[in-house]
């Protein structure tokens, strides 16, 4: 009797060992180094804040800048090939984290954007130390950057949503961190409530996709969703649509854009710059991973949705920017906010084209190329806005009148950045990026979307050129000299070099982004 009872034990032990082996995760520390180092530096800054005296809080800012620079440098050893970690060992080789070329390009954009926002923040905290606590600010910024860097490497829906929320939750606090500012608190509340609603809808969509396919891994979803039972087909389609909502919110796509103008105005200006670039990169990366990687067989569902969102977003964004009055308080920041909504529409075009294209990865490359251009020049425009805002607190468009007479370098660079956004020479990179997006739409047979984009580009010329013309007019009243602190000088120099270099050799950005394959 005892022998019979003991007979199954070896088989059971072997089965338990096999099960344990299937769930044990190997960790490639080099692959996960960029987001990990960012998070570690964030924790270190928060702890150091307890011991650093008030007069030396600037050290925390430069530590954060150094940490982001180091995290960006850690991308270089990963260029030699694709690396994956946190993989299953059951034969499917499905992984939760993959550092391929696409991941590295987006992580470079995210960490580089966060680094430039950190340079702007060093000056902003020094000017406003009483209302912006340094330790909390840098911890939240680095935490958000770590989540944003994690997202492009995520290859399962659970990690994707966790990374999205790690990038988003600190951003809510950063928007409302300024003490005693009612406008900042209202902006943070609006941002938080709308984002939480979008996240809830996205989680419901993910649950529908999981119920239909039985897996959260993107590559496994792509394989299994084609074999979904007919009774679950509608459930899977609904899940696809709902899953896209949260990422559409992060990209500020219409009708999920209403939080953008008030949030940009209420947030500290470096955080508005951060959201305009890094926040968008997070949203577009999530859209690309969910659509092109996980759900290519449902292109007939998300393709028309993306095309409609692109047309609506660029039209509403440009119309909103066109309506800004030059004398209104914070009109310069509001124009940049509405402009970012319009630019989001252009960024959505290649994603929509991927649904109809024979080579969807080439379409994704167009989105990445445009995002690289937009990140460099938009951060440059925000840098000049931060410079002018130091002496003109209301940051109206009229405050930029005659900037050439007081600071010719800043005026010329802002004019260059605006012309890049408009797609006019000498902003050659902006023109090339728009042509790449336009070509992606035409090649995919979306002629109507290309026409809508062309009309919107013409509309956008008006407000970009109007702002540019103000820079070179005679100043009204006494001219105000703008002293440029070292961090702002560094940020302005980096964005200027990137914009000018890419305009001199735009094919490099297009080739670099075109290799962003999964």
Features:
single chain; mainly alpha; 2 strands; 72% helix; disordered N terminus
What does this entry look like structurally?
This protein is mainly alpha-helical. Helices cover 72% and strands 2% of the residues. The protein is built from 21 helices and 2 strands. The protein has helices at residues 2-6, 9-23, 33-48, 58-73, 101-127, 134-150, 157-175, 182-213, 218-224, 233-250, 260-266, 269-294, 299-322, 331-354, 360-389, 403-406, 408-422, 428-443, 447-471, 486-504, 506-514; strands spanning 83-87, 95-99. A two-stranded antiparallel sheet has the order 1-2. A hairpin with a 7-residue loop joins strand 1 and strand 2. Helix 4 runs parallel beside helix 6, helix 5 (101-127) packs antiparallel against helix 6 (134-150) and helix 20 crosses helix 21. The N and C termini lie far apart (58 Å). Mean pLDDT is 85; it is low at 1-9.
Topology overview:
Blueprint: H1 2-6, H2 9-23, H3 33-48, H4 58-73, E1 83-87, E2 95-99, H5 101-127, H6 134-150, H7 157-175, H8 182-213, H9 218-224, H10 233-250, H11 260-266, H12 269-294, H13 299-322, H14 331-354, H15 360-389, H16 403-406, H17 408-422, H18 428-443, H19 447-471, H20 486-504, H21 506-514
Antiparallel strand pairs: 1-2
Helix pairs in contact: 3-4, 3-6, 4-5, 4-6, 5-6, 5-12, 5-15, 5-20, 6-7, 6-12, 7-8, 7-12, 8-10, 8-11, 9-12, 10-12, 11-12, 11-14, 12-14, 12-15, 13-14, 13-19, 14-15, 14-18, 14-19, 15-17, 15-18, 15-20, 15-21, 17-18, 17-19, 18-19, 18-21, 20-21
